[in-house]
Write a structure and sequence with these properties.
The chain has one domain. It contains 3 helices and 7 strands; from the N terminus they run E-H-H-E-E-E-E-E-E-H. It has a 4-stranded antiparallel beta sheet. Strands 5-6-7 form a 3-stranded antiparallel beta sheet, covered by helices on one side. Helix 1 runs antiparallel to helix 2.
Length: about 160
């Protein structure tokens, strides 16, 4: 099964654009009033904090379980075509997958995959799945459950 969340790229770019427009608009509104002189500084820092939070959450996710290997990729949405600075990728054999868990926080969702390497040492890989739709998360959960069930059957 192959799936990704490529459809959210335009939405995130729109959110960044709206943040920039709102920050500029509010900064000019606050500067026009003499009563609130430090207001533009608060708007700047508030917008910066929101932009950092969105930048941390906005990640591209790709899942591929076709073939003998399981491939999971996480990378940044902005500038990922030119700079590959936030990529996290694992490619493991399906028989090495030991377990998984989807953790849900208030504004952040995480997929944790437990797998073993060739020396039978266990590792955890964490992936940001915040912008993956619920339906696709359900398919990923079913696929990983099927892989784990097959692994237990062969042991």
């Amino acid at each position: 099964m192959r799936t990704d969340n490529g459809s959210v790229r335009n939405f995130i770019i729109s959110v960044y654009f709206v943040l920039i427009v709102v920050a500029v608009l509010l900064a000019t509104v606050f500067q026009s009033f003499d009563a609130i002189s430090d207001g533009s500084l608060y708007v700047f820092f508030g917008t910066l904090v929101v932009a950092v939070i969105i930048h941390g959450i906005a990640r591209f996710f790709e899942y591929d379980s076709d073939g003998p290997n399981l491939i999971i990729i996480n990378r940044g949405l902005l500038l990922s075509d030119y700079l590959n600075y936030r990529e996290h990728k694992i490619e493991i054999e399906k028989k090495k997958v030991l377990g998984f868990k989807i953790k849900r926080f208030y504004v952040y969702n995480q997929l944790v995959v437990l797998y073993s390497d060739r020396h039978d040492k266990q590792h955890k890989a964490r992936f940001n799945v915040t912008l993956v739709k619920r339906r696709k998360l359900r398919y990923i959960r079913q696929s990983l459950s099927k892989i784990i069930k097959e692994n237990k059957k062969t042991k």
